[in-house]
Amino acid sequence: MRFIETLNLAAFLNSALCLAVAFALGTAIGAERQYRQRSAGLRTNVLVALGAAAFVDLALRLTGADGAVRVIAYVVSGIGFLGAGAIMKEGLNVRGLNTAATLWCSAAVGACAGAGLLAEAGLLTIFVLAGNTLLRPMVEAINRIPIDERHAEATYEVRITVNRQAASDARELLVEHLERAHYPVAAVETKAEMEETVDVVATLVAASVVPEELDAIAAHLEKQHGVTNAAWEMHAKA
Length: 238
Description:
The chain is α+β, with helices and mostly antiparallel strands. The protein folds into two domains: 2-143, no CATH class; 154-236, 2-Layer Sandwich (Alpha-Beta Plaits). The chain is 60% helix and 17% strand. The chain has helices at 2-6, 9-35, 42-63, 65-84, 97-114, 118-133, 136-143, 167-180, 211-222, and strands spanning 88-90, 93-95, 154-163, 185-191, 197-204, 227-236. A four-stranded antiparallel beta sheet has the order 4-5-3-6, covered by helices on one side. A hairpin with a 2-residue loop joins β1 (88-90) and β2. α2 (9-35) runs antiparallel to α5, α3 runs parallel beside α5 (97-114) and α5 packs antiparallel against α6. The longest helix has 27 residues, at 9-35. The model has no long low-confidence stretch (mean pLDDT 84).
């Protein structure tokens, strides 16, 4: 029987230890994700780490280090597809990037364990947990810092609401005022919000602005004939 021919007690115990370590470390990473109620929680991270460890260990047993390196390359790309499924785009917001990155790291932990680098797998797990926990207060502190529009890279739009009959003239007026203030326009759209009025939206080429200047432009446009409202807004880049 093939099983009897290939059975090697020492190699079997080594594989068992590698898989057990991958399971334990994947559990540590997954438990933190489960506690945070992330889409990829305990079981997903454990299975990713365990699967990566199993594939690398199998390649080592069958073809040695060269085969293991090739398998690791496939694990990296394969986890990339799995992580892509955790990423969701909602309008201008992107969610799930951290979850995808954690899955990628879980695979790296499993690959280390499967290759027999158990200390390295444990060290990597510590860093992954630190990244997802210890850095959280820093992230929250940074997010609470008010945004200075003069230095933030974002997409800026100037929107005016006008009577439908004045839409064509309003487009020209909007572009003229923005370019006179040295804010070149990348695109202008007309959006019909109501039967009587339309929104004319100009997207700026500029990656940063002086808020007071756009406030002044909006205030001036709001006084023009046919314009019922003028404002600008910033959309942070993903």
